Amino acid sequence: MRVLMVTSEANPFVKTGGLADVLGALPQALQRQGVETAVVMPRYGNSEVHWAERIWHQMHIWMGPHYYQVAIDQAVIDGVRYFLVNCTPLFDRWGVYSDMWGDFGDNHRRFALLSRAALEIARLIWRPDIIQSHDWPAGLTACYLRHTFAGDPTFWGIKTLFTIHNLGYQGQFGREVLEDVGLDGSLFRSDLLAHHGSVNYLKAGLVYSHALNTVSPTYAKEIQTPEFGFGMDGLLRARSHELFGILNGVDYRQWNPEHDHYAPAHYSSADLAGKQECKRALLADFGMPAEPDWPVIGMVTRFAHQKGLEFVAEIMHKLANEHARFIILGSGERKYEDLFRWFAAARPEKIGVRIGYDNSLSHRITAGADMILMPSRYEPCGLNQIYGLRYGTLPVVRATGGLDDTVQPGTGFKFWGESGWDLYGSLRFAIDSWFNDRDNWQSMMRRAMAQDFSWDHAARDYAALYRHLLS
Ligand code: ADP
Hints:
The protein has 471 residues and is of the alpha/beta class. It has helices spanning 18-23, 26-32, 88-91, 107-124, 141-146, 177-180, 201-208, 217-222, 233-238, 273-285, 309-319, 334-346, 359-368, 384-390, 401-406, 420-436, 438-450, 455-470, and strands at residues 2-6, 36-42, 53-63, 66-77, 80-86, 98-99, 102-103, 130-134, 159-164, 172-173, 194-195, 198-200, 211-214, 243-245, 296-303, 325-332, 351-355, 371-374, 394-398, 413-415. Strands 3-4-5-2-1-8-9-13-14 form a nine-stranded mixed sheet, sandwiched between helices. Helix 14 links the parallel strand 18 (371-374) and strand 19 (394-398). The chain starts with a strand and ends with a helix. Residues 17-18, 21, 300-302, 329-331, 357-359, 362, 381-384 line the site of adenosine-5'-diphosphate.
């Protein structure tokens, strides 16, 4: 069985979020299960791929009025072939979706070309049984397959799967882009590509693919409701018998307190001493005192509405009076960056904030903090809480999506509701627990550290889904 995945980002080449983590680990886990897996993605100006070799020099792609000559590089990681699409006018830039001036104005064409190139690769280089497209940037793949390549015998029998990592990002463009990407204007119909007056790439994936899945069982249910459906809930309810929820795994080779490259000390559930050293180093890094020994609450996040930052902001003045310290790493929307900078400036001894994207620091926070905070409004799966579990850094989460699926009362703290005060109640309870019953806290840590969210579980579920699709 062969699976070709289509994505806009994958570790270790380029990453803006959790999608890259998935595409950097699931293919290898599938390969270990005996599913031959390859990945197609763009080669951006900032991709890290010094070792890739050119395997196809000139691939000709006509897309509406445009002609592109692309070249394909290949990098193999643990038996998985990553096909990197070189197209200088579209991809050779610093930035995946945007630069400092905002989203690129030709994203509709850039990611349409990604889908087209994936199908050319399937035709010319590596024929799969399944094509699995991830999120809106790969949304047109099944649509091209159905229309542009209808009747091409190469594709007979190939099944398509569309994976939703985040329904909140849909790739919406003006109606005029259809011609630009070589699709017929008649596809602008509300049961096909049109959604509230726009061409919607995510919807294309939902409509044209044989099956759909998302990255946790709870999120698969939630997105069928108006509250979480971002306007797609009706369509998803209609396709609910072909919509599956498979919980993401995490890469324990990178995220393991016993041998974390970035952590200043190592520890395990049998010997937790190193965690205290990680905590001291983290506090020192933020110029905070180690004494008195108070719990450190960490947060690593994109600064986006989804992440529930208002809940934290609403109660920050109360939190700053707790016997606890907060260390927050994030980047994204300017208003949140400014707000959290301001909190840190107001109470530097209690609140440490670093604005930016810093992988090393994210590891050091996960290792050095006592709790990891994720108050997301919605969370398809979420990774940081799973990393936190493995590091004995107990998650405090809002009970939604993958957060609800992965955190249990014995391994962390959950709150429901939609206000900072709901979060406050849960955090207070967690802080009190830390102070009042250290033995119980340590047994929660050990229970959390023993949880297994490795990719092998997820890969088995995906392999079963592929078999179901091909049966
Ligand atoms: P999302 O994909 O919605 O951003 P996830 O929790 O699924 O959320 O994945 C986020 C990933 O990006 C995690 O691996 C997390 O550690 C990482 N991350 C997010 N923000 C930062 C940051 N500012 N610095 C370093 N890593 C970050």
